[in-house]
Structures are given as structure tokens and as C-alpha cells.
UniProtKB/TrEMBL annotation:
UniProt domain PhnB-like: residue ranges: 4-113, 122-247
PANTHER family: PROTEIN YJDN-RELATED
InterPro entries: Glyas_Bleomycin-R_OHBP_Dase, PhnB-like
Name of the protein in its database record: PhnB-like domain-containing protein
Length: 287
């Protein structure tokens, strides 16, 4: 399974507690455990949990669809995730699924539990909601992302005008639900015209691990094209305000070096950067 693209969830100190919670519910494991970064594996998929501080809160503009194979499986996850959380759509039967529910858990992560066909091997699928100034741009976003990444495609696209479920107040040609892949990694997306009090932010971002500087430059320049913004330490926002982290694998190797003094020099050098420049990291390491 593709584990060089994966979501990053931002926490204010409760990442470890959250990691244990998800590993218990979904039968996963913690694969890296440091004070700031925890990596977990659920159904063979990597998720990164970042104890970054109070700056950003996760919200429902990015939720996680869990493709369930039985009603009992849906019910089991629902019981755990809704405990201490907020129900956004009650668990029940809907036109698109015999058993479905949408819940915001106690750690601020939003889940859609769905009884239906799996999209290949990937069981947990990030779902992007295009709202406010982005409403109506889901199709444009899919075209943007699938042109940038290799091994990409747009799958099924269901529009509100196709008449499945609640299309009240929605523009018929807008996307009710769509599937796309970037470099073999599955995502869903949707347009929504409701005036939510949240939007894309750094609370949930997508990490792409790159092989070299050439790939890093290409993805960085492509994702900030058409009005995106550079941020710090390998972070950027694309034209839709969605956050990405473009991270060379070499950075992780150098930061995890057994020589802590050298590793610290690398971290200090990275803190000065917007886009990550591997040669400058190597220079800091060897200084």
C-alpha cells in the first residue's frame, strides 16, 4: 500500500492519547513515538499525529471515510467514536448506504462510517469538503491534483443533480461525492453550500514523502501554482487553502541520526526554510 502519501493530524499535546484510542478501535499500532510526532498504522495505512500546540484545530472540512464490510463493523466503530463526541449525521439508513453515520470524535477528528464497497485496498479515505469560496470547485481540484501527481485518476463522480439523497439547496452540477487517486492514494471529495464556521486549515494536512530534490521542487512548485502560498518547514497551502507537507525522505534520515548534535543542526537548518533544500541540510549536518 502507498505509505509515502498520508494525512497529518494536528494536536495540542493529546496526540499520544488519541493514537492509543484509534489503535484500540481499529486494531492498529503505534510505529513511531516521540514527544512531537507519533506515527500510527491502521489497516496498513500510515497516519501522522503531530503535537504542534494550540494554533490549529481539526475540523470537518477534512473527514475520514471508513469503508465497512458489515453492519456490525459500522456499529462497533460508531459506539466508540461517538462516545464523548458530537454526532453530525445520525447512524442510520440513507439512499447511498444501508448503514451510515458522521461523527466528530472527542479528539476533534471527523469520521464517516460507511457500509459499502471498498475502493481497492484502502479502508480509510480522507474526504475533502469544498465550502465557502471553494464551493463548486471539487471537480476543478480533482483535475488539479491528478495532473500534478503520477499514477492518478478521477473515478466515480456523483453530482447533486443525479438525485441520490439530499440535494436541497445544492447546485445540480456540483459534486455530491467523488473518488480520485493521487499516486495510487485514494481520496474522496464533495462540494457543500452550507455556511459552515470552519474551512481547510493546518489542523489536517497531507504529507508527501519525496525521493530527491527534483521531486520536492516539482511538487512544491506545482502545488503552489495558481495562487497557493509557501509556508514554513516544508508546509504550503494550495490554491484551495488545503495544506500539504512536502518532505524529502533524506530530511527524516538526517533528523533521526544517532549523532544528536548533527541531528539538531539539521533541525535548526530546516526551521529556517520554506521549501526543504536537501543540500543545505547536508551542509548543516556536515558542518
Amino acid at each position: 500500500m502507498n505509505n509515502h502519501i498520508f494525512p497529518c493530524l494536528w494536536y495540542d499535546g493529546d496526540g499520544k492519547e488519541s493514537a492509543k484510542f484509534y489503535c484500540e478501535i481499529f486494531g492498529g499500532k503505534i510505529t513511531e513515538d516521540s514527544q512531537m510526532v507519533l506515527n500510527i498504522e491502521l489497516f496498513g495505512q500510515k497516519l501522522m499525529l503531530l503535537n504542534g500546540g494550540p494554533q490549529f484545530e481539526k475540523n470537518a472540512s477534512v473527514s475520514f471515510m471508513v469503508m465497512c464490510e458489515s453492519e456490525d463493523e459500522v456499529q462497533n466503530y460508531w459506539n466508540r467514536l461517538s462516545d464523548g463526541g458530537i454526532v453530525l449525521m445520525e447512524l442510520g439508513e440513507y439512499p447511498w448506504s444501508k448503514k451510515y453515520g458522521w461523527v466528530h470524535d472527542q479528539f476533534g477528528v471527523t469520521w464517516q462510517l460507511y457500509l459499502g464497497e471498498k475502493q481497492g485496498e484502502q479502508k480509510i479515505i480522507p474526504t475533502l469538503m469544498f465550502i465557502h469560496q471553494n464551493n463548486g470547485k471539487a471537480l476543478e481540484a480533482m483535475e488539479f491534483y491528478t495532473k500534478i501527481f503520477p499514477d492518478s485518476k478521477i473515478g466515480n463522480v456523483l453530482k447533486y443533480g443525479d438525485g441520490v439523497g439530499d440535494e436541497n439547496h445544492e447546485i445540480p452540477e456540483n459534486v455530491q461525492h467523488a473518488h480520485f487517486e493521487i499516486d495510487g492514494y485514494s481520496l474522496f471529495c464533495m462540494d457543500n453550500s452550507y455556511d459552515h464556521n470552519f474551512d481547510f486549515n493546518e489542523g489536517i494536512s497531507m504529507v508527501v514523502m519525496t525521493e530527491n530534490q527534483e521531486e520536492t521542487d516539482y511538487l512544491w512548485n506545482s502545488l503552489i501554482s495558481n495562487g497557493g502560498n509557501e509556508s514554513m518547514c516544508g508546509w504550503l497551502k494550495d490554491q484551495f487553502g488545503f495544506s500539504w507537507q512536502i518532505v524529502p525522505k533524506r530530511l527524516i534520515q538526517l533528523m533521526n541520526d544517532s549523532d544528536q548534535e548533527k541531528a539538531l543542526k539539521v533541525v535548526q537548518e530546516m526551521m529556517k526554510m520554506k521549501k526543504i533544500v536537501i543540500a543545505d541540510l547536508e551542509n548543516a549536518y556536515n558542518s
